[in-house]
Amino acid sequence: MPTYPFPSHIAHSAIIVLHIVSQGGDEMAATSHASIGSRDGVSTLAGRWPLLGQRRPLVIYLCAIVALDLAAIMVFAVTTVFQWWDLVTFGALMACGAVCIEASRRLGMPAGVSRDLLSAWWLPVALLLPPLYAIFAPIVLQILLQVRVRATVLYRRVFSAAAIGLAGCAASVAFHWMIEDPWVLSLGSGPPILCAVGAAVLFSLLNIALIAIAAHTADPDMPWREVLWNRESMLLDIVELCLGVTVSICCGLNLALLILTLPPVVLLQRSLLHAQLQAAARTDAKTGLLNAAAWQREADTEIVRARRTGETLALLIIDIDHFKRVNDAYGHLVGDQVLVGVASTLRSQLRDYDVVGRFGGEEFVVLLPGADIHEARQVAERLRTRIGHMAIPVDDALVRVTISTGVALMSVHGDDLIDLLAAADLALYRAKELGRDRVCIPVVQSSPPPPSLPSDDHSS
């Protein structure tokens, strides 16, 4: 299951990736020099308690989910009858989860949203054991992740544990309501297995919904389609649910069969984390866009293709105007939110096959395959307008920024990436000279006419 997929601007550890977009591991840490609301001393508190530096609706939502999780613990702690076999089963499943966590520690874990397949262990807890165990399972594993894999902002771990615990608790209650004796899963009959699948789907839907609401609350401008499923995420969810139900059946047959289920789960987890680490190596941790090296590789590929096919191609260099003033006035946390907001706007306004990346600092680069100079200017103006309307809330104020953009066209301003970047950079410099918040295109110098030859006509 996904754990805490907040956009990178919420906090960053190596993220971010996306931060997802500066989105590394599953979590991000806040910088200590944040100066949000420094007039009333919030800056100092936000440095010690990063949660206080987030949007107020997000803080309220996170606290509500954690409070609901604590309430569920108290309610089920009173009504649960503890049995030694339940405790042994819980310990065995948590031990398997610990082995997976150790495997991920050795391989490494990407920043941002990470898929760790740990639901293969806490989903059986939800199906086979009373609901109280389903609430405690993610707490145990999140503590191990914090201690053994990556220490991150504590409130993110707490929220992840609470969201997964509530989803698992709901799935457990639903399954036990439908099936009086959950251990009949080991018999392999159809109805219990179908009920287990239904409970697993409920678990997945609730977990995704709780986290998607948090992500959207953190960034209301983010489209819902970006915080909910995509095709790859759905496929991974199906794999996790199948693993969880399969492990539950094996566990019901004989607890010792967990030894046979552990190696395949560890192998799948390592393969998945390896793919995520490869993706993270191409991604800017703070914005979730391509980093400079990955962008250059993809841009070179597009340029070679454009030469071969004879298609047009345009390049934009985008710079946030007076970005240092934002950092100086509001702090780097707000500056990070601006970067993430600009990156999100770029993604939402560009085509899927446009190549967009962060070039460093407050500069972004965009390659527009198939665009002529007229289309490139239209795109640049649209981006300038949309980003100019973007607002980052900070206490009782709204932070707004503008951008300056330089545009270059292949075969007009250059034939390779270096020439295009140089031409677009000159145009960007010109845009800043003219007062910023504008789009400029390099002036193509026409070649002077050749000198005229002396005439041989001597007629009078």
What are the SSEs and their pairings?
Elements: H1 42-48, H2 56-79, H3 84-107, H4 119-128, H5 131-149, H6 154-178, H7 190-218, H8 224-227, H9 231-253, H10 258-281, H11 292-309, E1 313-320, H12 323-330, H13 332-349, E2 355-360, E3 363-369, H14 373-389, E4 392-394, E5 397-399, E6 403-409, H15 417-433, E7 439-440
Parallel strand pairs: 6-7
Antiparallel strand pairs: 1-3, 1-6, 2-3, 4-5
Classify the helix fraction into a percent range.
55-70%
Secondary-structure class: alpha+beta
Mean pLDDT: 81
Strand content: 5-15%
State the total count of DSSP E strands.
7
- Biggest sheet: strands side by side, in what order? 2-3-1-6-7
Distance between the termini: 95 Å
Secondary-structure element string: HHHHHHHHHHHEHHEEHEEEHE
Question: What shape does the CA trace take?
Answer: elongated
| Largest sheet: number of strands, sense, barrel closure | 5 strands, mixed
> What's the Cα radius of gyration?
27 Å
Q: Which stretches are poorly predicted, pLDDT < 50 over at least 5 residues?
A: 3-45, 453-460
Helix count, DSSP H or I runs of 4 or more residues:
15
What does the model show?
It is built from 15 helices and seven strands. It has 460 residues and is of the alpha+beta class. The strands form two sheets. A five-stranded mixed sheet has the order 2-3-1-6-7, with helices on both faces. It has a two-stranded antiparallel ribbon with strand order 4-5. The model is unreliable at 3-45 and 453-460 (pLDDT under 50).
